[in-house]
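Table S5 (text form). Sequence records supplied for joint modeling of the two-component complex.
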Amino acid sequence: MKDQDPRRTARRNARRKNRFGSNNFCLFCGYSCLESLTQVSRRWLAANGVAAELLNRLLEDHHAHGEAHDPDLLVTLCLNCHREITEGLLREGVSMYPETNVHKLVALKLRASAVLLESLASSYRDSATLLEESDES
Amino acid sequence: MSHDIYVRAHTIQLEQASRKRPAFIADQKCPDYALVFDCESLVTPDQTLTFGFWRFGQRRNGRYVPLEEGILHDDGLRANEINLLHEYARKYKAETAGDGCSRIRVYSRSKFVTEVLGFAIQAGAFIVCFNSGFDLSRIAVDWETAENGGWSLIFSKWRNPRTGEVKPNKYFPRIVVKALNSKTSIIHSTRAPMSERGRKTKKVKLWPSGRFLDVRSVLWGLRNKSYSLRTAAEEFKTQHRKLDHKPTGKVTIPEIRYAREDVACTVDLLNAVIHEFELHPIPIGPDRVFSPASVAKAYLEQLNIGYPSKKVAHAYVQYGIFMQSYYGGRAECRIRNWEVPVLLVDFMSQYPTVNELLNNWSVLTARRVTFPDATAEVRHFLSQITLERCFDPEVWAQFRFFALVEPDDDIFPVRTVYNGATQNIGVNYLTSRGPLWFAGPDIIASILLTGKVPRIRKAIRVVPEGTQTGLGSTNLRGMVAIDARKHSFFKHVIEQRAANESEPALHYWLKILANSGSYGLFVELNPNESDNAKVKVFAGEESFETTSDVIEQPGKWFAPHIGSLITAGGRLLLAMLERCIRDAGGIYLFCDTDSAAIVSTEHRRRIEMPDGAEPITALSRHEVEEIVQRFESLNPYNRDLIPGSILKIHKLNWDENKRPRQLYGYGIAAKRYALYTKTDNDIEIVEPKAHGLGYFYPPKDSAEGWKHETPEWIFEAWDWIISGVLGLKRKQPPWFVRPVMMKLTLSTPHHAFRNIAKGPLTRPNNFMMMPQISRFGYPQDVDPNKCTFITSFSSDRDQWMNSKCINIHDPQSRIYELANEYDGRKAVPKSFFMLLESYQNHPEARPLAKNDPLVLA
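The corresponding structure-token record, covering 994 residues in total, follows.
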């Protein structure tokens, strides 16, 4: 994934490290990418109405072009993937604030789509490999 | 003659205000990110920023890989120059990793400060430059004197819309640069608030501390060599090198390419330096390396050795005694302005050897160190001292004492004003009405040289009690195992150096470690400016309270009971050598800390002296070798690794084919001498001393491939002096007519510069020149006692005479020009010819004559 603004990435990383510590990881799956982690507790999840059996497969709506630019274009992602793709949008320079200049808005949507498509490409490749491997076995 | 003498003292600050120390991020030796930048400046005196390049990189597989590249330019740069930078940025792709940003960004200085420098500080990144003080000062908009006496650089200002007043932005950190010496600075950023206090929470978020890494400083710490970017890139064989381009101060395509390559080269060097640094398993990051001693101290910490100050209880009075006894190395010239044949000898690793002989490692690793009274015992011990006993290494551990002496025609180191102008230290006959404290080895040296025991009023011993717990082990440079429980650091480092001659890098570094870890850290005192601070002074056993504008802050390893004994031990070795030479009927030309040039020829012979003086005897080479052999008994090292004597015949006494050659020496004064070889009508300078000359800017560059550390012009200067003395044909070098210039870096806000602190010449860390004015060459409208001219820096020697100068003592100074002939209005600088004329007539102000002893008032 290209990073168009590594300084901001570095700053976010530093802030997240400051918040989570440098060696933190997801309690459920061991996921440890600091950029993508969201800090919640089981108690917090339970208090927010998440059933115990759903704790390991939380899903969220992702605004593919950013909510400010297209509130209706939604895809469903797990919590981590949602955070990861949002990080991708930020690295690509897709602002989360409304854009009034049409040229800039179209450019932002194209960039946001590129990020989504890159993620899909990666995901499809993994799925294809999985299928091929299951056929072989 | 009667003199006032000066002794050192120990001071402690009373009513010390608690000072906020900047917090350093300690979780990683090297952070994940680094910002590397380099600035180009105008070539006018102000050296204002024109533009620069920066690269922001991430650490991957131990290397910083650039992810973003950009240009910064001065806020006030001309539009056409900014356009050229944009054009360049559009035309070329950024040199970044595949996943990095491929555009070259172009930011103004102010945008660079907030969006690059500010972000890098927040990201905890290394802020990297080669000579950081200069580059950080280019992007500062203002500066003040920092609390610690360094520069406090201001990067952002704001205008109050109501009053129109422009003030420093208190929400952006300042960067404080405190120069330690010409090679290194301590740099930190202030922890300014990031915004105003929250209305509800009242919490203030502070800026994190920046981590500043000056590649030049780290190189100095690791290699003990002062590199330029060019020489460092050559030494480390970096992929990018400094381009052959002379900066013009303009924004042109060649200048842009040059600046870009400089940053690329700095990134390569950063990676190379960190790679070398990581060989050392020490508990500090490379940004905390300011000198070779930083590395040595980190190793002592890694060995878990407790700080010496924690092992002595309330020893202020004793520290006053040790500091009163403290003097540096002995240097003197015995035969002035007369050529003599010599043989140069020197003590191998003198200070580590003295440490080992005095068993200082047991003091450093003791559980506790005490200083009990030992007057009777020391008196008895001194009455038994002979030269022979001093060659017994077992006796040396008993030299670890200090005594209050009533000097009466004894020979001791004395700090006084010998020449009527400046303080200096000499080893002299001394008689004093009041008693003085001296270190044990100095008292023994006096006995060896005078043959009588000084009157001892009181004495204390340095006694280590037990061994501290928790001593650890480590690997020096990752290769040499050392265990503080089994090995003496001082001895082990020297032995392992000898054992690892086949590893040149390790062999060289162990020498640096031995020198940096054996002495200086024990007498480290950092002067900090203060405003009339109350201090208590301990001198000898006396103490008094006073005020001072400078506070000497002891370093963590400050241990004057060790430091004072080390230099005294070195002087004792020289005194033993002096006695041996004297007993053999000889004399030496000079001695200098750990070396001496003994008057010697192949066969013993008489040498006539000028002006009817008594002839002297040149010892035969064999007789000198016998003296050298006497010091073998003091070899404290493993003889399989380091056989023979600790006194060595210097390699300069052999030619390139390893055949003995006769050296000649000519001395003007202490530390002002040269050694050379002779043919019938010519001489060849072998070892010239740069003392008294080396601080001037070289009037010529040394030739390509010059192998000596001392620059070529010093060789030529000595060749000219000695050829003249010997009546040989000599040719005046072309640089003799050039004005004598000193290069000056405005690294500290010196009082004299405050007059013009915001003037055009005085941006912090600017380079400038200080022309040396001849005695009668001052313009009529200045007072020579209040006149120091400065001018802009130029390495173009042909332009030096066209310099425009100002007088730093005069806030309204006019511009002064330089001229060869005096007209009352222009200044006449000293030429190198004039400099050498006065140099060779320099007086030796330190007498050592029985009929001319120092008698203290």
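Note: Residues 6-136 of chain A form one domain.
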